[in-house]
Amino acid sequence: MSVTRFPQDFLWGGALAANQAEGGYREGGKGLTTVDMIPHGPSRMAVKLGQEKRFTLRGDEYYPSHDAIGFYHHYQEDIALMAEMGFSVFRTSIAWSRLYPKGDELTPNQEGIAFYRAVFEECRKYGIEPLVTLCHFDVPLHLVVEYGSWRNRQMVEFFTRYARTCFEAFDGLVKYWLTFNEINIMLHSPFSGAGLVFEEGEDQEQVKYQAAHHELIASALATRIAHEVNPRNQVGCMLAGGNFYPYSCKPEDVWAALQKERENLLFIDVQARGAYPSYAASLFRDKGIALVKEAGDDEILKHTVDFVSFSYYASRCASADMNAGNTSAANVVKSLRNPHIEVSEWGWGIDPLGLRITMNTLYDRYQKPLFLVENGLGAVDVPNEQGEIEDDYRIAYLREHIRAMGDAIADGIPLMGYTSWGCIDLVAASTGEMSKRYGFVYVDRDDAGKGTLARRRKKSFWWYRQVIASKGEDLA
Ligand code: BG6
Q1: Domain count, the chain
Q2: Fewer CB near the last or first residue (10 Å), C or N of the chain?
Q3: Does the record bear Hydrolase in its keywords (predicted)?
């Protein structure tokens, strides 16, 4: 039987990201960001992957981030709903371009600061602890066009200035910070992940790992600044998690899975352990990568994070032949389809035990507290005749994952908290759809951007409220 053993001070809540929730893309002095250029529709993937340059908006396309779910104007109502569920933590991100519209200014946009102060004060009013990501899939567009984004070392200076501004401006309101959302995703989705676009014939692996090095330096410096500004600040890295299982016990498949694990964990190894791992040298050699480092970089990287945060939607599978057909997207990371688990309507695996396995792996490796900052089921919700949404499928998914989390805690793993993804329906990052819903709260908006934006509590809203009230004991 599963045992749930959540500590008394466990943080229960949910997560959003600025670019998928706020909208108001040109309001309050905000500048354009990468995600504002990613359309819904057939060009989406090419733009997200950095294969198609999109530096100007087109009149014939729809851009879901521009209005998203209007959190920019609805934040009081939304935070009140979170408070009603009993949240003690709310994860969101700051849109870098609200504070630095172009990204390379020397002083911040005060309107942007005022907006986030208001959001965080609203959280505090209800005793909700904000957990804030500095960069969640949005880079100011000007930095992409003028500097080539993270391929350029100057980004370290721009990012650390922005980070310092956040730590100082929101000191006393925010103490939990994440630097880069799902840092490993930049390898799979380079434009949305890190603002990278590629030239014809360019060595993309070289560009991506060099850009990642710059992010790692920026992340370590930001961590140091956070601690200087206020020693109570706690900073985490953020992994798009989910272990790779070997597709079979064939040694070649086991080796392939180990290689995939290393590719996934490389950046977290740096952020949590303070240096590139030993296998980095052979990985770079095999890929023909020559990292350009500056004197002092190794010292900088020694500023490790306080905790390891991660998202978990599904486990993954690898074999020696990853092109053997039968693939499934497990959060844009290529994976073979695991015949032993069910998949969601979008083909993402459903594997609660995989969460326990992932947590054990991460804790064995890092020995730092973990924080599960994204988890959930993207599903179509159809209101019934009374207009109610009976999302039992979502409840079933969350119940099993919360159980698995409890099992991992019983395994001896310190877990700081849980923020389920898209606690209020928002725009899907991969597809730009609204119909891929994760929330406890339904938002009246469709894939074409039509709808009243009215909020409505789903059945899962009442269920999650009970889970939180019972501190994870009542999952019925
Ligand atoms: C994570 C991201 O990759 O997965 C989120 O951090 C994203 O931004 C989430 O929304 C779920 O993916 P999707 O494509 O269903 O929105």
Answers
A1: 1
A2: N
A3: yes
Residue 2 has pLDDT above 70, yes or no: no
What confidence category does residue 9 fall into, taking pLDDT thresholds of 50, 70 and 90?
very high
Query: Tens of pLDDT along 455-472?
Result: 999 999 999 999 999 999
In a domain, 475, yes or no: no
Domain of 244, in residue numbers: 11-469
Per DSSP, the three-state class of 103 is coil
Output the residue whose Cα is nearest ligand 1's atom 2: 429
Ligand 1: residues whose CB is within 6 Å?
Answer: 17, 20, 137, 181-182, 240, 311, 331, 374, 378, 421, 428-430, 436
Instruction: Write down the pLDDT at residue 46.
Output: 93
CATH number at residue 81: 3.20.20.80
Which tokens is 300 given? Answer: 């900088």
374 part of the active site: yes
Q: What is the residue-wise DSSP string for 340-406?
A: TSEE-TTS-EE-HHHHHHHHHHHHHHH-S-EEEEE----B-----TTS----HHHHHHHHHHHHHHH
- Ligand 1 centre from 194 Cα, in Å? 15
The catalytic residue among 22, 263, 374, 433 is 374
Atom 12 in ligand 1: residue holding the nearest Cα? 429
Residue with tokens 């100082």: 168
Give the residue, out of 421, 426, 427, with the most ligand 1 atoms within 8 A of its beta carbon, to mutate for a pocket test.
Answer: 421
Q: Is residue 40 part of a domain?
A: yes
How confident is residue 1, by pLDDT bands cut at 50, 70 and 90? Answer: very low
Task: Identify which of 332, 94, 129, 151 has the alpha carbon closest to the alpha carbon of residue 233.
Answer: 129
Query: Residue 24: which pLDDT band, with cuts at 50, 70 and 90?
Result: very high
Would you tell me the crossing angle of helices 251-273 and 352-366 to the nearest 10 degrees? Answer: 60
Does residue 474 form part of some domain? no
Residue 46 contacts residue 66 (beta carbons within 8 Å): no
Would you say residue 5 lies in a domain?
no
Residues of the chain with pLDDT > 90: what percent? Answer: 96
Count of Cβ atoms closer than 10 Å to residue 110 Cβ: 12
State the amino acid at position 204 in one-letter form. Answer: Q
Distance 430 CA to ligand 1 centre (A): 6
Distance 295 CA to ligand 1 centre (A): 36
